[in-house]
Structure formats: structure tokens, C-alpha cells
Design goal:
Elements: E1 15-20, E2 35-36, E3 59-62, E4 68-79, E5 82-91, E6 97-98, H1 99-103, E7 116-119, E8 124-126, E9 146-147, E10 152-160, E11 168-172, E12 179-183, E13 212-214, E14 216-221, E15 226-230, E16 234-240, H2 241-244, H3 254-269, E17 274-280, H4 287-308, E18 314-319, H5 332-338, E19 340-346
Parallel strand pairs: 17-18
Antiparallel strand pairs: 1-14, 2-3, 3-4, 4-5, 5-10, 6-9, 7-8, 7-11, 8-13, 11-12, 14-15, 15-16, 16-19, 17-19
Helix pairs in contact: 3-4
């Protein structure tokens, strides 16, 4: 049995998109603006300054949890296998702060191992390379680096290279808004380590397998009628049964048909040969009610999509009752999320 939302939203639904898969720190909502610095980006040929430490910043961002300004000085692909980035941290606060806590990971506070490159087109995150010694192929410090007020710290990091056709990426920095749409330069100039830091050149090291993380794009409509999740292979459209159906019914509301027309267009544009339609319920009631109801609702969505989709696609519908929740059933919002029909298909 399900409980239905009785309030209708008059606002036109607009998508709100997030990416899931990075650390929580890297996905903090921006508390400060990212600053674009004139004269910093790569030229038309993609080349950036030969001296990575003397370059003007490409972009600048500010950390929310620490008083650091972070300048991206360069981002280049000197070889088909690797990309190297250089950064400058400036303490804009009034007390000393440890840079390792700001740039590192819980397992590594002596390097900028927490930085990542984000390829939003292919939904991939690239983390710094790791050598066979277990250390990051990036700036390494013998002790936790301390930056005094007004002081700076230069750091570098090598990453596995994205595909050759990826010319721009976002740079994810812990506790800061990402640096968006950064061009990857083509400079092959060496990156000398800053004073006091050891050389970490991937061409001279034995490397472990690169860490490349799959991301999931999540888009919500403001009226909460649907949530779209997609990775590099599949799209999953979660449709709220509060919007599609009346309480305990399996007949589509008039509004549901307009929502399903949009889903059908997405299927027509996809490469999918098979489309899965899965009905789900919250834990209100019991399986004797929830399973048959979720099956009937999945079948109703399947039948409407079969009518709307214009190309040859095989549809499969199943109902699962409350067996596969996506949120806690202890809250009203969680139960609302669990009352859904999910349409899944290849991109």
C-alpha cells in the first residue's frame, strides 16, 4: 500500500544535476565563487606556460573549511599516458594551517592526493598516479606541511590521461568549488619539483594501476516527479508513483502521460534494444498488497511506453513490492522516494 502526495506543484520542473562518486569533500556545494583569471588559460593551440611555477593562474578557487586560496597554475598533457597539474596554495587567514589536511586524503596527509580531474562527458574521475612504492606521483613532504599567514605552498600532481579527445576537464579540490572547464595544455616542458620536494616523474617510476572512478550523474526535477541517474553505459529514470497514479491505483493520471512522452523520446534517442520497467513500493502495507500493486503499475508504464516509443524495442516489466528500497522507510521523504517505477535502458 502506498501513501500519495496530494499537493500539486505549479512550478515548471527544471533539472538539478549532481555527480555522485567523488569524496564528500570534493562535492561540497560552492560556498565561494570560482574566479576566472584573465590571461591565464591556454592559448589556441592548447599550450600553457613553459614554466609551471611562474605562470599566471588559469583559475582560482577558495576553500570553505580552510583559509586557503588555491591557484591552478598549469594543466598539461606532456605524453599520451599522463597529465600534470601545478597549484599554489596561499594562506589568506591569520593563523598557521596544515596544507596536508586541506589537499590530502585520510590515508595520506603528506601529499595533494585528494585532488581529482573530472571528465563530465564520460563520467570519470581521475586521481593522482601511485608508484610501486605506494606513494603518490605528486608533491611529497617528509612532515605535514605548515603554511603561515600570507605564506604559499607550491604542489604538483600527475594523473592518468583522459582519452585524447577530452580537451577540457574540471579540477576537483577538497573543500572547494571545482575549477570548471579547464583546457588541457600540450606543453611537454619538464615540471621541476619545488624546492625541498623530491622529483616524482612517472616516466622514471614503476606505476601501479591508475585509479579511475566511475561517476553517476543524478538529475532531479523540482516538482519531484522524476530522478534520472546515468553512468557511462546506462540511464535509469525513477518516476514517482505519487505523480503517476492515484492512491492504491494502477491507472495512469493524465499528467503521467506527458511525463512518459519525455521518457519515450529519451528511449528513441538511445541505443537501447531492451527497456526494463520495475515497480516498487514503500513498506506501508504488506507484500500481499505491495507486490501485485507494483506489478500492475510497472505494466501500466510499460504499456504506455510501448505505445509512445517509435522504434523497435523490447520491454520487460516486473514488480518488486518493498524489497528494493533506495532510501530509508523511517521517514516520509524516504518512503516517497521508494514509491517509484524505474525505467532503465542503455544510453
Amino acid at each position: 500500500m502506498t501513501r500519495e502526495m496530494m499537493t500539486s506543484m505549479r512550478r515548471t520542473p527544471r533539472p538539478r544535476r549532481t555527480l555522485v562518486g567523488l569524496t564528500a569533500a570534493a562535492l561540497l556545494l560552492p560556498l565561494f565563487a570560482t574566479v576566472l583569471v584573465a590571461g591565464g588559460p591556454a592559448g589556441r593551440d592548447g599550450a600553457q606556460a613553459a614554466n609551471p611555477w611562474g605562470a599566471r593562474p588559469i583559475q582560482t578557487t577558495y576553500m570553505a573549511a580552510f583559509p586557503f586560496r588555491v591557484d591552478l597554475l598549469s594543466l598539461n598533457r606532456p605524453s599520451p599516458q599522463a597529465v600534470v597539474a601545478t597549484f599554489r596554495l596561499t594562506n589568506i587567514g591569520s593563523t598557521d594551517h596544515m596544507a596536508g589536511q586541506a589537499l590530502g586524503t585520510l590515508d595520506d596527509l603528506r601529499s595533494p592526493a585528494g585532488i581529482a580531474l573530472l571528465d563530465a562527458e564520460n563520467l570519470k574521475a581521475y586521481f593522482p598516479l601511485t608508484a610501486s612504492d605506494g606513494e603518490c606521483v605528486c608533491s611529497l613532504f617528509s612532515s605535514l606541511p605548515n603554511v603561515e599567514p600570507g605564506g604559499t605552498l607550491d604542489v604538483f600532481a600527475w594523473f592518468p590521461a583522459p582519452p585524447a579527445d577530452v580537451q577540457r576537464v574540471s579540477v576537483e579540490i577538497p573543500f572547494a568549488p571545482p575549477l570548471m572547464d579547464v583546457p588541457i595544455g600540450s606543453s611537454t616542458a619538464p615540471v621541476p619539483p619545488p624546492s625541498g620536494q623530491p622529483e616524482r616523474d612517472p616516466a622514471k617510476l614503476t606505476l601501479r594501476s591508475p585509479r579511475i572512478q566511475q561517476l553517476v550523474s543524478v538529475t532531479d526535477t523540482l516538482d519531484k516527479s522524476r530522478t534520472t541517474e546515468e553512468d557511462d553505459k546506462e540511464k535509469r529514470v525513477r518516476l514517482s508513483t505519487d505523480v503517476l497514479f492515484d492512491l492504491n491505483k494502477a491507472d495512469l493520471k493524465p499528467r503521467a502521460r506527458s511525463i512518459l512522452r519525455d521518457v519515450a523520446k529519451q528511449i528513441d534517442r538511445s541505443s537501447a534494444k531492451t527497456v526494463r520497467v520495475d515497480g516498487h513500493a514503500d513498506i506501508t502495507g504488506n507484500d500481499a498488497i505491495n507486490i501485485p500493486l507494483s506489478k500492475r503499475r510497472a505494466a501500466a508504464v510499460k504499456n504506455e511506453l510501448e505505445r509512445l516509443v517509435e522504434r523497435d524495442v523490447t520491454f520487460r516489466a516486473e514488480g518488486h513490492g518493498s524489497a528494493q528500497p533506495v532510501a530509508s522507510n523511517k521517514t516520509a521523504e524516504g518512503r516517497r522516494l521508494n514509491r517509484r517505477v524505474t525505467v532503465s535502458f542503455a544510453k
